[in-house]
Amino acid sequence: MKIEIQKAILRENDDEAKRNAEFFKKLGLTVVNVMASPGAGKTTLILQLAKALRNDFKFGVIEGDLASRVDADKVAAAGIPVVQINTDGGCHLDAPMIAKAMGDLKLKGPGFLFIENIGNLICPTEFDLGENLRMVISSFPEGHDKPLKYPGIFASADLIVINKIDLQPHLDFDMGGFTTGIRLVNEEAPIFEVSGKTGSGLSHLVDWLKKAAGKK
Amino acid sequence: MHELTFAQSILKIALNSLPPQSGRILELSIKTGVFNTLEPNCLNTAFEIISKGTPAEGAKLVLAVEPAKITCNNCDYSAEIFSFDSPMTLCPKCKGQTLLKGGTAMYLESMEVEE
Fold first, then answer.
1. For residue A8, what are the β-bridge partners?
2. Which residues of B touch A1 (CB under 8 A)?
3. For residues A193 and A179, what is the distance between their CA atoms, to the nearest angstrom?
4. Closest to A49 (Cα-Cα) out of A71, A32, A28, A26
5. Distance between CA atoms of B70 and B10, rounded to whole angstroms?
6. Nearest 5°: phi and psi at A152?
7. What is the crossing angle of helices B3-16 and A11-27, to 10°?
8. How many other CB atoms are found less than 10 A from the CB of residue A3?
9. Is the per-residue pLDDT at A30 higher than 90?
10. ipTM attached to this prediction
11. Which positions ≥6 away from B33 have C-beta within 8 Å?
């Protein structure tokens, strides 16, 4: 006897993500899921964006790492409300983890919540957190072929940031190849060339994020 | 690499979908998109372990790939992609930029149950 089911395998996470999204909407928060390899510059960029946005918007961060409070401590030292999630080996954040973290993060909008996901170009892709925007960060030292090697995460991005442009003169990075690889899987996501260290290119990213928050 | 999580979820959905007084589950049909990182052997092993002692013990997992669709921004070329081994970044017809869409599904389609 055949029984039709047609149910998403990750429906429990998806349902929790929907509840998170409703909660964030009630709080007036634009939520950005920040995904990248370890060392691409997620925390540095989040701190730079906080500096640029916090005069006009409330700003909070959820940090995700296997272990340690290294990133949460940096964010807290900048005076930004932050909660650190340690997954003890888990390779991605999921919606229930975010729901739990929001219990400890006293943040009300209008403003931004940046969720720094585990450094990983594979696993975070499949787990919706209830975010409004997925920001995928690649960096010049990682090379221009990452979109071809990790298509899923680039396909899922609402915006793509290519960081550490200050190092470009020292590298053989083919920007045309990088863009072609992205456009193969993602027609619309804008690509921002920035340096989290020098601040180069950040104003365009900040303007885009402000517009995105306004559209919500 | 989350095959245990996927297997647990598949088992939970299957058992919740089982009508009362049914026999064993014989087969589970799963659709997974070409962009997903679901590895069949790992999934089978994980499912074998966690389904022991349940009506799903011994059930066969039948995996079908949901393809992505590749189109050309410049001409009418289109095709289905069942594997991402050699992505066509340029159209084989006119060398225009290509676009891949779809191929992200992951769902339990149906199951075959002993009468």
1. B107
2. 22, 112-115
3. 11
4. A32
5. 29
6. -60, -45
7. 100
8. 14
9. yes
10. 0.89
11. B65, B66, B68, B102, B103, B104, B105, B106
Q: What percent of chain B has pLDDT over 70?
A: 98
Nearest C-alpha neighbor of A131 from the set A108, A112, A118: A112
**Helical spans, DSSP H, in A10-165:** 11-27, 42-53, 70-77, 95-102, 146-149, 151-155
**Nearest-angstrom CA–CA distance, A200 and A203:** 8
Q: State the DSSP string of B41-98.
A: HHHHHHHHHHTTTSTTTTPEEEEEEEPEEEEESSSS-EEEES--SS--SB-TTT--BE
Separation of CA A71 from chain center: 14
Tokens found for residue A201:
């290119």
B39 in helix, strand or coil?
A: coil
Query: How confident is the model at residue B87, as a pLDDT?
Result: 67
Q: From the list A3, A8, A183, which residue is nearest B106 (CB)? A: A8
Q: Count of CB contacts below 8 A, A vs B?
A: 92
Query: How far, in Å, CA of A48 to CA of B34, rounded?
Result: 36
Q: What percent of chain A has pLDDT over 90?
A: 96
The rounded distance, in Å, linking the Cα atoms of A4 and A130 is: 28
Q: CB–CB of A1 and B113 under 8 A? A: yes
Q: Which are the contacts of A79, defined by CB distance < 8 A and separation ≥ 6?
A: none
| Partner A, chain B 12-51, Cβ-Cβ below 8 Å | 12-14, 17-19, 22, 30, 35-37
Q: Which of A54, A41, A29 is nearest to A136 (CA)?
A: A41
Helix H or strand E segment including A37: none
The 3-state DSSP class for residue A58 equals strand
**Token pair listed for A31:** 């939520």
Whole-angstrom distance, CA of residue A125 vs CA of residue A63: 17
In the DSSP assignment, the letter for residue A108 is -
* Three-state SS at A120: coil
Residue carrying the six token digits 């007084």: B21
Nearby residues of A172 by Cβ (< 8 Å), 6 or more positions away: none
